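Example 9 (inverse folding). The structure is encoded as follows.
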């Protein structure tokens, strides 16, 4: 069976102004280890799709399974990286990276080693004792990526993680993420509206259209990073 299956999923938000069909029909499977980019215009339903995969929004119809289990809520074994890096301002960079671990099982030497490895990969180990406000936007996003990877998630969900950054920082972040990827190789869903980013990072691109909100193209990217 596939690692992840999104089976005839639909999402309708009920609002004061009426029903909004955010996802009309999503139906696809993902193999373990695939890096899948979801590309599409603003408002086409990308975030909604990812929230449902991550168990942060219920589906209105259809179902989503990961590794044999139906998604019914957020999971501690998933990594979540969102557009705005919501780091805890009163905690150090290192404590922010370790935050998911503290919640789950308590820290061990291995977790500290992993935090060090991740922060070194993104060039921020020397900043481990700084507070988030002492860092630039790009640096904070790199911290958020390390936090998303600290618990060795089996599925990494990223929603436009670099969209608040300028073009040069985005290129740096793409390179940092590609490095992390080549090293840890997890299954990932990466939402973006940048074709360039999608093609650079992913080995498969799902293109979403707006009305109706469906996956209109499913493209394999043959390119391998050198
Ligand atoms: P994208 O991530 O592609 O920009 P979204 O999933 O954020 O798309 O939004 C898809 C559609 O659903 C849009 O029309 C948006 O306005 C609507 N929408 C998103 N979230 C909500 C919500 N919580 N309540 C009502 N409508 C929403
Ligand atoms: P932004 O997206 O906010 O521009 P960047 O990540 O591009 O953030 O970093 C902006 C500035 O922060 C850099 O010009 C540099 O001075 C400093 N900086 C970023 N990363 C490091 C690092 N690893 N070591 C030292 N300084 C850094």
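The amino acid assigned to each position is listed next.
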């Amino acid at each position: 069976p596939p690692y992840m299956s999104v089976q005839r999923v639909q999402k309708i938000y009920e609002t004061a102004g009426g029903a909004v069909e955010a996802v009309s029909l999503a139906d696809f499977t993902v193999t373990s280890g695939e890096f899948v980019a979801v590309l599409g215009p603003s408002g086409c339903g990308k975030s909604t799709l990812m929230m449902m995969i991550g168990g942060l929004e219920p589906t209105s119809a259809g179902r989503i399974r990961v590794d044999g289990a139906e998604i019914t809520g957020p999971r501690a074994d998933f990594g979540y990286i969102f557009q705005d890096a919501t780091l805890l301002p009163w905690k150090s960079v290192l404590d922010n990276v370790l935050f998911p671990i503290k919640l789950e099982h308590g820290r061990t030497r291995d977790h500290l080693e992993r935090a060090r490895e991740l922060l070194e990969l993104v060039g921020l180990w020397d900043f481990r004792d700084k507070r988030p406000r002492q860092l630039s936007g790009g640096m904070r996003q790199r911290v958020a990526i390390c936090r998303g990877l600290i618990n060795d998630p089996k599925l990494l969900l990223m929603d436009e993680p670099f969209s608040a950054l300028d073009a040069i920082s985005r290129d740096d972040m793409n390179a940092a993420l590609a490095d992390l990827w080549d090293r840890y190789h997890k299954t990932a869903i990466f939402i973006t509206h940048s074709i360039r980013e999608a093609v650079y990072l992913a080995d498969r691109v799902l293109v979403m259209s707006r009305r109706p909100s469906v996956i209109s193209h499913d493209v394999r990217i043959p390119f391998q990073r050198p």
